[in-house]
Fold this sequence. Notes:
The structure is a homotrimer of 400-residue chains.
Chain A: E1 3-10, E2 15-16, E3 20-22, E4 37-42, E5 52-57, E6 61-66, E7 72-78, E8 81-83, H1 102-105, E9 116-121, E10 128-133, E11 139-144, E12 157-163, E13 169-178, E14 186-195, E15 200-209, E16 215-225, E17 235-237, E18 240-245, H2 248-251, E19 270-276, E20 283-289, E21 296-302, E22 308-315, E23 322-329, H3 336-341, E24 346-348, E25 353-363, H4 366-380, E26 386-387
Amino acid sequence: MPTHEFVLANVENGVWIESFDLEPSAQLELAGSDRWSVTKRRLHGGLSDGIDVVTLDNGELSLSVLPTRGMGIWKGQYHDTELSWKSPVAFPVNPSFVDLFDRQGLGWLNGFNELLCRCGLSWNGPPGMDAVEDEDGNSTESELTLHGRVANLPAHSVVLKVVTEGKGSISVTGVVDETSMFGPWLRLTSTVTLQAGSNEFVVEDRVTNMGGTVAECQLLYHTNVGQPFLGADSRFVAPIRQVAPRDERAAEGIGDYSTYRGPEAGYAEQVYYMDLKPDSSGESSVLLRNSAGDKGLKLSYTTGPLPCFALWKNTQCEADGYVTGLEPATNFPNFKSFERRQSRVLNLKPNESHECRLRFAVYDSADDVSRVEGEILNLQGNSHPQVFDEPRPEWSDVGA
Amino acid sequence: MPTHEFVLANVENGVWIESFDLEPSAQLELAGSDRWSVTKRRLHGGLSDGIDVVTLDNGELSLSVLPTRGMGIWKGQYHDTELSWKSPVAFPVNPSFVDLFDRQGLGWLNGFNELLCRCGLSWNGPPGMDAVEDEDGNSTESELTLHGRVANLPAHSVVLKVVTEGKGSISVTGVVDETSMFGPWLRLTSTVTLQAGSNEFVVEDRVTNMGGTVAECQLLYHTNVGQPFLGADSRFVAPIRQVAPRDERAAEGIGDYSTYRGPEAGYAEQVYYMDLKPDSSGESSVLLRNSAGDKGLKLSYTTGPLPCFALWKNTQCEADGYVTGLEPATNFPNFKSFERRQSRVLNLKPNESHECRLRFAVYDSADDVSRVEGEILNLQGNSHPQVFDEPRPEWSDVGA
Amino acid sequence: MPTHEFVLANVENGVWIESFDLEPSAQLELAGSDRWSVTKRRLHGGLSDGIDVVTLDNGELSLSVLPTRGMGIWKGQYHDTELSWKSPVAFPVNPSFVDLFDRQGLGWLNGFNELLCRCGLSWNGPPGMDAVEDEDGNSTESELTLHGRVANLPAHSVVLKVVTEGKGSISVTGVVDETSMFGPWLRLTSTVTLQAGSNEFVVEDRVTNMGGTVAECQLLYHTNVGQPFLGADSRFVAPIRQVAPRDERAAEGIGDYSTYRGPEAGYAEQVYYMDLKPDSSGESSVLLRNSAGDKGLKLSYTTGPLPCFALWKNTQCEADGYVTGLEPATNFPNFKSFERRQSRVLNLKPNESHECRLRFAVYDSADDVSRVEGEILNLQGNSHPQVFDEPRPEWSDVGA
Lengths: 400, 400, 400
């Protein structure tokens, strides 16, 4: 039997495993590595009290997945290189301690420290009052909080899978419901997979409208990376069709949008919106590489379901969070009502799903980084990026 | 000794039992059934993390009580028939994850899925800003959230009792404090009792003003039922003196207020307010019966402490929550300030209590359903219900 | 080795001890007492679910410290005398159940019942909208809630220390981060120490700006005492330079500011602001003594870092919380923007710390109380307190 399943949590059936350890055994071997492992722990104390952490290790690359925080990926490690950033929020925060309405709707920031954090499912972007008209012209107001609810919703089902076919792989699947009585009911089913011995991990998500009427949906993958990938003169490499600053602050740096500065106290964030070019399979790739060119993180994803890309440059001093965000999304992270007018809000019919696929690869040799950079430049080809010096009115709320 | 007590939780004394199982034994037998049991479990994972569930089973009927959610009753089962409804919120939600201020004061809906959910204790009804004048004419504003706090407050004391007298019974008593420094301090002491082998359960509640000054109190029993009791052509049977629609939407359906439609996507709720007739013992009864007349749920309660009754018809499609609410209460669920003007807000003196008693009986045979319906019609007698086509200004906030 | 360390919680390393007990042993003896002990428990059930309690007992005096509630001190006991008050909130409340925005920003009161509760770290005082101008003249608004966040933030590190030198001592140190992405990052490191066999406990706190830019800081020690120290004709004794009522309500009682009334239903709180005189070592002391003069609680603290003192008289009936507050602070507990204008808000540079030291001593004999009262009167000396009949405009927001 090529697939072994282990239920780590299932609220419906009253199943929940406090502590779990899996290692290679005579009964369970993967061809790709003899050092893979899976562990599951519950954290206690501080704001992390009650946080479940599932750590997948394929022998080369390890990832800590947080079912308690919407299947976010806390951090990773590839050989000796950490995949993470240092947020002022040092540890995973149990959503029970997060008041999304804190700081005038910015409470999401009180728990923000992951390598990969989803923004959605009903909305993402800044907080504010969203007025929606129904078919009869009646307006309903909703108070949106920064980046939505999903990152602060725990999975009610967590299943580990070990597949022995080929090189073998380990994966964890979590199911998260964003719902309310009289509200939309969106279900995220997220699977993170590592092939044994590989430098890659794959995120496959499905968002399903479980309700009986059409539901709006927005989804953004807030992928956050710090040192050693990010540093002075690190570079962002991508096959860009168009790029524009989000606002005047970003416009100041449009000439250097693809390079980074070192940590600076008081640096104000700059965000660039982009339209990226997919390859013939429909996938596009971006690379963050350090100045020396011997550390690189590549994010590849299917652009169809995620047509928008935002680059978040936040090169503040280390203590305040030196980080950049690589953010494929269904939309640009403007306020939802603006995105709705731009037709960048999904409308899912009952039982309709939206599926996204992202692949992350880590490189720690100059050869590999150089090769990957070449592949992306090759995809860019002769078509130079169209660079807008000012915010585009159809992309940015501030551009009007 | 006819009474056996088991302390499942007592915060004051540092007692809390993670897992508890009780079954008939040579030392503990009940004449009414040899298949009764009590279990207590803690749920983990998802939004249910930390929820305690006490399941009472009298051999015929089982109930899952939630001390963590204000002694609400999650669901039940009588023989093969489920006593529940399918909320889009699939599992019990720990109040630590519920922000009552979410959705402009409708956050209560994020955790709403019980068979029996109390609305109170200081207020129930819709959210809004309640201005209260004190004796000196000073106005204080309070921001009320939908249906109050009590359903999202955990019991700090949970005691199981097994009484061997007569047929024998099992019961659980929880104590819930709704309090704050400089706020009212209302204590709910709730006991749910099942006689061994019976098709009934009894809820006996006492709300006590523990504070040093007069405290306002409102209490509504949001009893929520879905299939198989509810379905197309199910009927609501009650000894009605007066019935009126809550608002214009309900007025549209006043001609069919006592019958139900099948599930419909987009159905907008209809609510009917009623004055019910008690029998000579002071108890009134309502029945929800299915179209075939072979499934029925009867709710009997003492009308003195609960003079108002609301019927909530919410026959949305199954995915959005196909459900009806049978809701005896101290008041009609209008905004508190309106109810105060109508003298339908209790004023409890220090140490004064308000006691309520509700009995629920489940029937799964045509004979029983028919008999119970007959009893209610008999109580109605020749006095036809007075049916108001429009909202009554003294019952509905919108009627003015 | 004179110091023994026990890590009770360390989120970073995944350490957390559910239950801990330490008593004198052949390997661990303290000269000052052979009856000392330390226990650590986790509470379950009610709103206390998930609360960790560390109880230090030096053989004469015991204290219950709450790492889960910002290292607040729940209660204590000296011989047969309880150090506590009876809040309507009977048990410690897990911050996950506290919505600071409840009751228009007064949600802090939903969890308020400690003997010692810190108000801070970024602000204390009443709720409201605080507008701050940055260097460029841009105004940012922050919605402040009553008395800040720190009392509702759990410690992510808890370490017990037993020192065998001299009489020996037991202490617990907790580390609490008040932080957010894009927010200030203030770290409280708090140590509570009891010397074996002593009637004293010492609180040593350090607040450090962990962020990369200057951060504001306010800190108030809300020390709350009820019976038997507080009662009719109890007295507050302190070396006062100046004392003024906070507002008109307090002005009514300025003639009796230092004496207390018995419990009265409906009593409205009175608060007095003071400038206290330190001794030659920089420490000042206040005493709360009962009418009989045989129970006394002395609070001594270094006035340099805590130049302001507030006396909170809240002699409501027992059921509503009969209590007085002795409150040394960096500021007076007015709204933050007023305190900022009065230059009573700290500005901590990156890595700068603010250190406070408070000593509490309990007395249960007339001789001791009389002696301590004499010491304070001696410090007062011939310099009579300057008593303001009305609020001072530089001390009170309402005085303008």
